[in-house]
Amino acid sequence: MPEERDEPSFEQRVLRELPSVRAYLRRVAGPEGEPEDLLQEVAARALKYSSAFDPARELGPWLRAMALRLVIDQRERTRRAPGELRHTPEAQERGLELVEHREDLQQRLARLTAVERDVLVRFHGRGESVRAIAIALAMPEGTVKSHLHRARKRLGAVEAP
Q1: Where do the structural domains in the chain lie, given as residue ranges?
Q2: Of 1, 65, 93, 127, which residue is the least packed, with the fewest Cβ within 10 Å?
Q3: What is the pLDDT of residues 1-55, one digit of tens each?
Q4: In this predicted structure, what is the pLDDT of residue 85?
Q5: Are residues 126 and 136 in contact, defined by beta-carbon separation less than 8 angstroms?
């Protein structure tokens, strides 16, 4: 009498495939791609979406496709992430330049009167029009232009509006 073999459960099949998925992730994501974290996510998603898997198909390709999608998503998130300063000498130097520039700008703006500074920041910093500034500050447009001209002159960079 032939022995009946129990088919392995979906979870057992996933566990058997994980070493090959790990190797795949190491090749595709590289060490900086955190392959172990991605592997855990593949396993979690496989279990979550087990009902979407067609048991007539091979499990390995399905898991590797899921892994590849995770790698692509991770790279896209990294690419879209705000410009984080990486700890390179160039990035540190650039950071110092930005700090020095900001300090210089603050010193120059401190030389201006409150109205000149407000008009200058509204015009150049916020992109407001002369008319919008005049309305917001309840003053004639010509007066706004005068304050803008004086502010630029005091900063040492006279430009036409």
Answers
A1: 10-79, 100-155
A2: 1
A3: 555 567 888 999 999 999 999 999 988 887 777 889 999 999 999 999 999 988 8
A4: 47
A5: no
